[in-house]
Design a protein that fits this description.
The protein is mainly α and about 200 residues long. The chain has helices spanning about 10-20, 25-40, 50-65, 75-100, 110-115, 115-125, 130-140, 145-155, 160-175. It is built from nine helices and no strands. α4 (about 75-100) crosses α8.
Length: about 200
């Protein structure tokens, strides 16, 4: 795998190199995507330890699927698709545990206790969006994915992504323009498990 300082290897070339036996290629992909994928989970899961665990699970799944990898789409889209599947599986397990044991399987997030009221208000507003609209908004605004990448990842038509993103932004703006509820001023340490 030849790489020059001005032209680093593409993600797709690195993944192909890894499938042909280059562990250095996987190390480089991990270096490139560790923070973005960790951020992907942290924006969706309250417990930092669980987010770290899901990050590791994502790269283990990538490792296991390496022999089947074909560069049909951007590697980034491929990796986020794996992360999204793992997130959905995690959520299903959490719902099952909550139903089975009668309590949510979450730990209050210490970072949220230190959040400002505004941050909490925004998080609550985002949580009120339709699940698909919320995911599209997070992928666009935080993961900086293109419309095409989001469409590919969520298996939606490109125009649907555009219209739902517009709808999500409009709904979020309306939620944020509404007067702040008085409940926001209460002790936010009791909120961690509910968001």
């Amino acid at each position: 795998m030849s790489e020059t300082p001005t032209h680093p290897a593409s993600d797709e070339r690195l993944m192909l190199a890894f499938t042909h036996g280059s562990p250095e290629a996987l190390t480089e992909l991990f270096r490139r995507y560790q923070q973005p994928i960790h951020g992907f989970f942290r924006r969706r899961i309250a417990d930092p330890a669980q987010a770290e665990e899901l990050l590791q699970e994502t790269f283990l799944a990538l490792l296991r699927a390496a022999k089947r990898y074909e560069p049909r789409a951007l590697f980034r889209t491929y990796l986020y698709a794996i992360a999204l599947k793992i997130l959905r599986s995690h959520r299903r397990k959490a719902i099952f545990r909550a139903a089975w044991f009668g309590r949510p399987d979450t730990v209050p997030d210490p970072a949220k206790r230190d959040s400002t009221e505004t941050d909490l208000w925004v998080r609550r507003a985002v949580a009120q969006l339709d699940a698909t609209d919320r995911e599209i908004l997070l992928l666009r605004e935080f993961e900086q994915m293109s419309y095409a990448e989001i469409a590919d990842l969520l298996h939606l038509p490109l125009n649907t992504v555009r219209s739902r993103l517009f709808r999500a932004r409009t709904a979020l703006r309306q939620l944020l323009e509404a007067p702040a509820p008085q409940a926001v001023t209460r002790d936010i340490s009791t909120v961690g498990a509910s968001t």
